[in-house]
Design brief:
With about 325 residues, this protein is of the alpha/beta class. It has two domains: about 160 residues, Medium-chain alcohol dehydrogenases, catalytic domain (Quinone Oxidoreductase, Chain A, domain 1); about 130 residues, NAD(P)-binding Rossmann-like Domain (Rossmann fold).
């Protein structure tokens, strides 16, 4: 099969699409023919070598975290799936993979997939796996967004941001989106009650908010100060300064800065599919690339400034 692999740590140029053996599922595993995979921040972090403790230093390392495709075969003991099922899912982000989701085929344990939502293409489904599950876990589980609460989504035009705006709206929140001004109309269409231009708005000019979901990872203490009494803040934009701010914020009790590692299981994926099926969550795809252009897709992701996801279309 064809698979995208990281041949050394560095810029997108270290990515190669190679021919390698198609994996076979073991007990409790499923082989999926991948139709689409997206580019996520985790992919670039692995590629640049910032998580060597997880990825290891032996090459090649598989590229790609999420996928949408069709079940080919199932291993012993797998129940609830059969060949031909349309599924979506994610490889385990804390395990080393010589091939991963950016490949023609992927093997994962059955608890890491769910039936893909009806009415969306594989490209659209792949754009929502990491972003949608991250936003759902952040808003529902990490900060417990309640009906009528004021929520700020910082970095609202990104993959997680666009999902968070929609899910926060569906949960009954009053949503303020902080993003580039050119994305204002589209963000309002996704459910934002108010859109602020991040280039012309400072943290001391806004708030207070009951909930802040940050996807940027900078100036966290400045934004934490905009929480109301009893407010909660969560960030998914991790960096060395962000980790320091998170650690220092523990003295603030309930108003500390929370974070987590999104690692959805089948139950989360099924909940997410329900939001898609109901129309509460729509995919936002910016660009689609063939697997052979994965390096170009990584470059576009790192350049930023766009609304929605970069997705890889994988043909067989």
């Amino acid at each position: 099969m064809k698979a995208a692999q990281i041949m050394s740590f560095g810029t997108p140029d270290v990515l190669r699409v190679t021919e390698t053996e198609t994996p076979s599922p073991g007990a409790g595993e499923v082989l999926v023919a991948v139709d689409a995979s997206s580019v996520n921040g985790h992919d670039t972090i692995v590629r640049t070598g910032k998580v060597k403790m997880v990825s290891g230093r032996r090459f090649p390392i598989g590229a790609g975290l999420d996928f949408a495709g069709v079940v080919v075969t199932i291993g012993a003991g797998v129940e609830g799936y059969r060949a031909g099922d349309r599924v979506w899912g994610m490889v385990h982000p804390r395990q080393r993979h010589t091939t991963a989701a950016a490949a023609e085929y992927v093997v994962v344990t059955a608890d890491r997939i769910g039936l893909a939502p009806a009415g969306v293409s594989a490209i659209e489904a792949a754009s929502l796996v990491v972003t949608g599950s991250t936003a759902l876990i952040a808003l529902r589980d990490s900060v417990g967004l309640g009906d009528g609460q004021r929520v700020l989504v910082r970095g609202a035009a990104g993959g997680v941001g666009t999902a968070a705006v929609q899910l926060a709206h569906a949960m009954g929140g009053h949503v303020t989106a902080l993003a580039r001004d050119r994305h204002a109309t589209a963000l309002r269409d996704l459910g934002a009650d108010e859109v602020l231009d991040y280039g012309a708005t400072t943290s001391d000019e806004i708030g207070p908010f009951d909930v802040i979901l940050d996807t940027v990872g900078s100036e966290l203490n400045c934004y934490r100060s905009r929480l109301s009494k009893g407010g909660r803040m969560v960030t998914v934009g991790l960096s060395a300064p962000a980790l320091a701010a998170i650690a220092a914020s523990t003295i603030h009790g309930a108003r500390r800065i929370r974070t987590f590692s999104a690692n959805p299981d089948s139950a989360v994926l099924d909940d997410l599919a329900g939001h898609v099926t109901s129309g509460a969550l729509r995919p936002t795809v910016h660009s689609v690339y063939p697997l052979t252009d994965i390096a170009v897709a990584h470059q576009a992701f790192e350049h930023g400034g766009v609304m929605g996801k970069h997705v890889l279309a994988i043909s067989h």
